[in-house]
TrEMBL record:
<dbReference type="InterPro" id="IPR003462">
    <property type="entry name" value="ODC_Mu_crystall"/>
</dbReference>
<dbReference type="Pfam" id="PF02423">
    <property type="entry name" value="OCD_Mu_crystall"/>
</dbReference>
<dbReference type="InterPro" id="IPR023401">
    <property type="entry name" value="ODC_N"/>
</dbReference>
<protein>
    <recommendedName>
        <fullName>Ornithine cyclodeaminase</fullName>
    </recommendedName>
</protein>
<dbReference type="GO" id="GO:0005737">
    <property type="term" value="C:cytoplasm"/>
</dbReference>
<dbReference type="InterPro" id="IPR036291">
    <property type="entry name" value="NAD(P)-bd_dom_sf"/>
</dbReference>
<comment type="similarity">
    <text>Belongs to the ornithine cyclodeaminase/mu-crystallin family.</text>
</comment>
Amino acid sequence: MHNNTIKIVSSIDVESHILPRITLSSLLRSQAIALHSLLRSSSFTSTPSQCPPRLSLTAPDYTQLFMPARISSSPGSVIKCVSVPKPSSSSARSGIPGVNLLFDDDTGRLSHVVNSTCLTALRTAAGSLLSSVLALGKVKDQVKSILVFGDGAQTVFHIWLHLRYFPSIKQVTVVVGQHRNLTAEDVRVKEDKLQAQLSALLHNRSLSKCSLTFLRADSEKSQVETALGTASIICTCTPSTVPLFDHSSVVSPIRTHICAVGSYKPTMCELPPEVVRSASSQGSLMVDSKEACSHEAGCLIQAGLQVEEGSVELGTLLPDPTVGEEEAYLERLEKQQWKEAEVSVFKSVGVGLQDVEATKLVVRLSEGFGVDVPF
């Protein structure tokens, strides 16, 4: 790109043209780079990656967040900017608008403006899938059911990526209404929207190959409990302040892996403390960042867990992403040895370095899309 232009990559560019180009191997490798960069003993470089505390501004209807970050081994700095609607805002249920800004190291100039409305969900779900491959990759063909709590973009992308890796899944259950009251019409609208989003993402795989069931958390509790008992993968994608299920409900006939990504404050909690403590005692509790989770992961804090001693960082379990071909990374990941625990848990609060690599991956695949603007 010429130094005096910037490329603008729109939401249509990302969702309609770039996402279909992303292979699982390239996506997982990009997030492995981010998670590896968190490691204190990283062999990447003597210069640490940078992820300073986020800045926030309060607007009448939004909280605006600005999150700069850079990975020492990978050129370019990224600033993630999002506007989080306040509960009272009329936009509170229409998603979180965002944009990621990529700066070129050689020129110091802004080189790309990327609509990032779906990128947070993409990178978070990719982190979850990394953990799912470690936990269930050895029994991949036996994974028949996934249950997801939530109804937003995180739910869509967790289902999408897990269906891509686990083609044996026949049952997808989505539980809605955990943290707000929904009418029957609300549920119907959400069901139609989620089905449309998944169909658009799946492209060559029809949803007809698996059963998609929506359950309401308040009025269909027995059905939710039954679905929990058969789910090999459970994803929690809500800002709940109370556990979403009872620990006795997790009784899958094969291993059960839980990806908890919705709670990100000490006051939030999606998982029963018994599940957290059990996974920790078995050595099967993974986290994206011990430091971040020790301050922000309400699920772990409220369970009385000492995160530093009671968990393992996902990055320590992953193959070195700087070695080998990009498209061979998934195969290398599948060969990694990890505990064959009856129940394993991955807790993520999200780290800014993940946004850096997700943005760079999208930019790399944006050739032929977007608009170059003199600047």
